[in-house]
Amino acid sequence: MELEEEKTLKDYLQVARRRKYTIIVPMLVLLLISVVVAIALPPVYRSKATILIEQQHIPSDLVKSTVISFADERIQQIEQKLMTIDNLNKIIEKFGLYPNEKKLLTSSDLAAQFKASTTLELINADVVGKGKSSKATLAFTLSFDHKVGSTAQKVANELVTLFLDENIRSRTERAEESTKFLQEEAEKFKVEIQKSENQIAQYKEKYSSSLPELLTVNMSSIARIENTLQQLQLQEKMLEERRISLGLQISATSPVVVDGGDGKNAKVESRASIEAEYHSLLKKYSSTHPDVKALKRKIEGYEEQKNDKSTNSQANINNPVYLQLQSEINVAGVEQKNIGQQKIALTEQLKKLEVNVSQTHQVERGYYDLMRDLDNQKAKYKELIAKSLEAKLSQNLEVEQKAEKFSLLEPPRVPEKPEKPNRIKILFVGFLFSIIGGLGAGFVAEAMDNSIRNHNVLTHLTGAEPLVVIPYIENQEDLNKTRRNKINFAILILLLLAGATVAIHFFYMPLDVVFNRVSDRLSTLL
Fold it and tell me: 3-state class of 65 per DSSP?
């Protein structure tokens, strides 16, 4: 029923008195449940290790490490590598963890339970550099929870060992991979350099006479050959004039000396004299002039006459002057022939040199392209060799553990006290919930009760004041009942205090010690 009058403190005390059992019983039940939960929950021990991240011992300006990832990233990567189902199940088998759960759970569920018992926490610090604030990971903690303290310490130590070994292995492996990669790339460039050198050698062999470095030699050779040709032409001209002169002289000289004469009156025309006259006329007239044609026919017919009369003529020639002139004409002819052959050879050589010079610029372009590629490859090869040596130093740095490394600052120890559950907290929360539950039960019972407890309610319902209010008169039975309630309440208080003492005792004393003491007491009694 709904009442509009305001309740006073006295009314609430009366309600508490009336509903004392409705309030106390739920309070006791909830408090008992919290005590049972606080005592019954198995203790969980935590073994924790602290691992320090040491910076590189040798200055990075002297030797740079090939591992450039941040420490927190590397820690997360190592955690992902180690916390696989296969690795975790090997650890579970090694230390005999979760013997009861193995019958009910799969390997994945066991690994998930192991992960839930493992905690990794980073220890960061604020670092100010170059006007910017950032966080740097200085260390990290690795812990494992288990109901047996010694087992927790063994598993935590195993995890720490795996972390340290994996960090060394991963850093060394990364340094080796960097060194191997750079060496392989250097070898590739070495092969490319050899190919380029072979191409240049073939190119130089193909255009051996048109190479840029031979341009000066070719130009000087052309100038020298042209000068030689000019000299040969001058010599040829002089020989031609000499032959003409000798031809004129021999035409005026008799080949035979007649009876003591000097031979100047007997004339026999020779081929040399006719040719000399022919060349003399060519300088005055063209090749179509009648006199020139007549001399040309005479030269052509001279060879036939010479074959018929050569024996008689040679036998009849006895003029030494004629013979001398004829010999000089023959020598001049031989020299002219030699000069002609030299001119032909030099002209061919000049043409080749001119072709070589004309190709030089095109050959130079292709040659410089090949040389530029070769120079670039050599520069890249030198750069890779230098980087390979640096990577080798970095690898030695990792192998000798002179680079950034994980150092065990605080090894995992056997815990003396359980990490959880927090029994005091459970008891305190249970105590609060028991009070709330008891008061709530009393409030609900009072709200559902429609009984009239005082004259104010009666006045509100009837609209009229009662004539007389008779107070409740306690008899002996009521007094005895009140006394018994006080005794029961005192006993309840004592039980609560005893329960709290036992809970505190269990919290501060390891559970295995309690079990040992209980077993010793039972053996003594038996």
Answer: coil
Q: What percent of the chain has pLDDT over 70?
A: 78
With H, G, I as helix, E, B as strand and everything else as coil, classify residue 84. coil
3-state secondary structure of 346: helix
pLDDT surpassing 90 at residue 267: no
Phi, psi for residue 127 in degrees, rounded to 5: -125, 130
* β-strand partners of 136: 125
- Of the CA atoms within 13 Å of residue 187, those in its CB half-sphere come to 6
For residue 243, give every residue at least 6 positions away whose Cβ sits within 8 Å of its Cβ, in sequence order, or none.
272, 275, 276, 279, 329, 332, 333, 336
Length of the chain in terms of residues written? 526
Query: Residue 128, SS3?
Result: strand
- For 232, residues 6+ apart whose C-beta sits below 8 A from its C-beta are 339, 342, 343, 346
DSSP-based three-state secondary structure for 470: coil
> Cα separation of 323 and 321, whole Å?
5
How far apart are alpha carbons 215 and 127 in whole angstroms? 66
Amino acid at 352: K
Of 298, 252, 308, 307, the residue nearest 275 (C-alpha): 298
In angstroms and rounded to an integer, the radius of gyration of the C-alpha atoms of the chain is 64
CB contact at 8 A, 91 and 114? yes
Contact 98, 110 (CB under 8 A): yes
CA atoms within 13 A on the CB side of 413: 7
pLDDT of residue 261: 44
Q: Which helix H or strand E contains 54, and what residues bound it?
A: strand 45-54
Gap between the Cα atoms of 54 and 138, Å rounded: 8
**Could you give the strand order of the β-sheet that contains 45-54, starting from the edge strand earlier in sequence?**
118-129, 132-146, 45-54, 405-410
Six-digit token string for 177: 């991979």
Residues of the chain by 3-state class (helix, strand, coil), percent to 5: 70, 10, 20
Q: Mind giving me the DSSP string for 282-311? A: HHHS-TTSHHHHHHHHHHHHHHHHHHHHHH
| Helix/strand/coil for 61 | coil
CA angle, residues 312, 318, 323, in degrees to nearest 5: 100
Q: Which domains does the chain have, with CATH numbers?
A: 9-41+421-518 (no CATH), 45-188+394-410 (3.30.1890), 213-384 (no CATH)
- Per residue in 218-247, pLDDT (tens digit) is 788 888 988 988 898 888 888 888 888 887
> For position 425, what pLDDT does the model report?
84
**Spatial CA neighbour of 424 closest among 302, 323, 507, 514:** 507
